[in-house]
Specification:
- The chain is 80% helix and 0% strand.
- By secondary structure, the protein is mainly α.
- The protein folds into three domains: 11-110; 112-211, Receptor-associated Protein; 213-285.
- Helix 4 runs antiparallel to helix 5, helix 6 packs across helix 7 and helix 7 runs antiparallel to helix 8 (167-177).
- The chain starts with 10 loop residues before the first helix and ends in a 5-residue tail after the last helix.
- 18% of the residues are buried.
């Protein structure tokens, strides 16, 4: 079972301790529709009630720890009363939000891994099917290859097929539990081709061509987005700080305003933070292409 961040004890023990409080999970799930599918696609072996209940009590634990820490610090140094009103609720909100969002973080990583290797895996399948190898053997070949999570997904399908499950059902289960829209669409096209009896090699050739074109379009779109982002980066990270410091120094020379060292450190910290944000934006928009 996957470890979940900020859960203070092993998942199985936490599951047993919170099993009598699943009604809390039922109540909170009314605010989070579709969470069951999210857990399925993140490969987390808990149902949605268990996961949300564990998230709730883990957040309570860390809220209690922060509250006790504040009281302990208050013994040695008097803290503002606002710390006690803001700190614990903020701790609960941040930790609960993070644990609740953790499956989506896993899903985003899975999508990047799958889409990075998807085109290569499809080309391998297309070559094999075009040369006369049947679909099952081509899937088994990809499952043994070095295609990341795609190999793992196909390995699961191969196991189900070899134990007696119909090939169509095994592929349809991949559609349900896989988070990548591209992967689900491609498997859906393959299953439709099998149902209609059309030439699978031709279908795979069309799929590979379409996917290659979409990758090319995404690269061009990313390139067109870099120019305005580079201009914004220059303005926020270079021009505004330089002009701002110059203006502050000019104003201070004509008035009694004093510029302390803290002001310059604040400007430096803000500039560094904005640069970090811009780097994250550029990285997040980069298409998944190797």
């Amino acid at each position: 079972m996957k470890n979940i961040p900020f859960v203070p004890i092993p998942i199985q023990i936490m599951k047993n301790l919170t099993k009598n409080f699943l009604s809390i999970g039922d109540f909170l799930l009314k605010l989070i529709p579709g969470f069951e599918v999210t857990l399925l696609r993140a490969d987390i072996e808990l149902d949605e009630r268990e996961y949300i209940t564990i998230s709730f009590f883990s957040s309570l634990f860390w809220t209690f720890m922060v509250t006790m820490s504040l009281f302990l610090l208050n013994v040695f140094r008097t803290l503002p009363i606002s710390f006690f009103f803001i700190g614990p609720p903020l701790t609960f909100f941040v930790i609960f939000s993070y644990i609740k969002s953790y499956p989506k973080l896993i899903i985003s990583r899975k999508i990047k891994d799958i889409e990075r290797n998807l085109l290569f895996a499809l080309r391998s399948m297309e070559i094999q099917v075009s040369s006369g190898i049947n679909l099952f053997d081509s899937i088994a070949s990809v499952s043994k290859g070095n295609f990341g999570l795609i190999s793992e997904e196909f390995k699961t399908a191969v196991k189900k097929i070899t134990t007696g499950k119909p090939e169509m059902e095994a592929l349809e289960e991949l559609i349900l539990r896989n988070p990548s829209l591209y992967f689900r669409r491609i498997i859906w096209q393959i299953t439709n081709s099998l149902r209609s009896g059309t030439d699978l090699s031709s279908t795979l050739k069309v799929i590979v061509g379409d996917l290659s074109y979409e990758k090319l379009v995404s690269i061009r779109k990313y390139g067109s987005q870099l120019n305005p982002m580079a201009m914004m980066y220059m303005m926020v990270a270079v021009i505004f700080p330089t002009l701002g410091v110059s203006l502050l120094m000019i104003l201070s020379s004509f008035s009694s305003m004093q510029l302390s060292e803290v002001v310059f450190w604040m400007i430096l910290g803000t500039t560094a933070f904005l640069q970090f944000i811009f780097i994250g934006m550029i990285k997040s928009k980069r298409p998944v292409v190797d």
